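Record pair follows.
FIRST:
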Amino acid sequence: IHVEGRWIKYNQGSEHLPLVKSLKGQNTGWCTAGESTAKTQLGNGDFYVYYSIDEQGSYTRPRVAIRMEGDQIAEVRGIGKDQNLDPHIAPTSIVDEKLKEFGNKGDVYRKKSSDMKRLTEIDKRHQNNEELTKEDFRFLYEIDSRISGFGYRQDPRIDEILSSRNKRKDIAWVLDIREDQI
């Protein structure tokens, strides 16, 4: 799957139909694919979409959206489950590089990007039946901080990884305490 692509900016107040047409039939799950929503969103701020290259060499596959409200980032969405970044985009610097353009307004989203990269790396090791470390479990059980994602719900990969685990045993191991102390 290609991740090579480019960002297209749809300016605040611009015609909404080009944005809507670029999203139609692409299964993004984004409400912006609806005409009235796109019109409202472009009325409130700029809208950026990262399109990756298709089989014909054109930039037509929407992968990431950044919706602005005035000069503030309102949301960043991907095409993964629950609008999280997909596992091909998450480990790249595509979103991080774009967020740099927004200065400190992108800080909260940089944490999300960092967390999603880490989750993708842990998920790959989990899929390959590789051992996870104490640090991995501190992260997955959100012991030191909450995992921030781009979707509107917690990234489903967290539950997929932890569903087969003995949480009590894991947490005891991570915290260096006995299970009966939990």
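SECOND:
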Amino acid sequence: ASLLDISDIKNTENKLRESEANYRLLFEHNPLPMLIYERGSLKMISVNESFLKHYGYTAEQANQMILTDLYPKNLKTQITEVAKKIQGHAYVGEWRHLKADKTMIDILVTSHDIIYENRNARIAVINDITERKKIEQAVLLSEKQLKEAQHIAKLGNCEFDHKSKKAIWSDEMY
């Protein structure tokens, strides 16, 4: 090997180390819970600090888990099937997860395939949307109750759309 070849190899090695350091920084210090699992076995092979804090697991516990351990019994088969189908594709979906204390949370997960430690894997970024879901349910309930009250009182309402110059009347107004 020539001097130039060795210098090219060293340069490539340095770039690889820098890239790995950047990845670690983005993964470890991400404020959102993240995990990496092996595609075939669904074994969890890495989680970030945010995952451990949010879910209440220790690093040792997380390293012994498979992806389906995060799901309630009624979703285990479904997530296994989805995990098979999404290989090679980016994925975004809503699910329910169990934390270490068995608290159920609603999540929005975004994932894609990666090679991690020479293994076919998948990285997932998790957003806890439990509070958002509670608010959505409260708004739906409130709307339903308002409609019922209007119906019982034989009162209606009208909304005017300034852009289209159209009025939208509730059923009670007819």
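COMMENT: Strands lie at 34-38, 44-47, 91-98, 104-116, 119-128, 158-161, 166-169.
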